[in-house]
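hey so i finally got around to running the thing on that chain from the lab meeting. sorry it took forever, my laptop kept dying and i had to restart like 3 times. anyway pasting the input first so we r on the same page abt which one it is
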Amino acid sequence: MKHDALTQILDALKLRGSVYFHTCFSPPWAVRVPAFGNVARFHMAMRGGCWLAVDGVDKPIRLATGDLAVIPHGAAHILSDEPGRPAAEVDEVVRQSGYTGEGALYYGGPDEELACKLFCGHFEFEEGSVHPLLDALPAVIHLPNTQTMNAFWLEAVMRFVASEVRAGQPGSEAIIHRLTEIIFIQVVRTFVDREGDRAGCLAAVLNPKLGRSMSKIHLAPEKPWTVESLAREAGMSRTVFADRFTNLVGMTPLAYVTHWRMERARRDIRETDLPLIDIAENIGYSSEAAFNRAFKRQFNQTPGQVRRQGPAVPA
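ok and heres what got predicted. didnt touch it at all, straight out
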């Protein structure tokens, strides 16, 4: 069974990893990747280096061989051999290169000895997903090769994924999705190890005590949780638990209970044919009217409006 809070949250957010291509960019070159919501794009420098400039971030970041960068909120960004170089849109780069989806994407000048080889893809979450964990992610996460906890393992995984992309054998797509999801989890772990409490909700999720209480909420949202009962699950005093939970997660423990109940209800509304009253009772509401009010406060839509929209469509 899935008892840890991070796994439960990522399952609820429907994390899915995907790969675009691996590149061979030779100087001079600059590529602009447009903004896109609901995805966290990533780039790993497999050989050589480049600059990454993310919209809304003051300074460009230098990616060296083995470095991994994640842009969690889908912001537009530019990859280039030198900062400030005029950039071509990624769709135009793909067109000019004649890239067919097989092998590497070649672009730029003729000198491949100076080429930057990147591995590019994204982590995707279900459309409309809302969770403090996503809000806690910064505009960009840069993990230098020397700072990743398992640098050699991470690079080996990326190389294996790249080989699967090139091979295109039966089952490759499933392997690529699973491995890229593992990469995201490793990024989160390493980020929290580096940032500590500054990682906010991420730090709470990975904290053994707070994470245990969150996991209990996830497993049984219908229970009549109180701050006292959640503090007991965490093995902490009521006051210390409430203060630490609120400071890291950004909401009180009982507000988080309501938040998770509504996320659980939204999933069931979109993925099942259960009557709304049954969904309400499954998360601890005996009154459909009270459930409707709480649901609308969180999503600015009624349960009936969400159901009429039909099942979620992957991004």
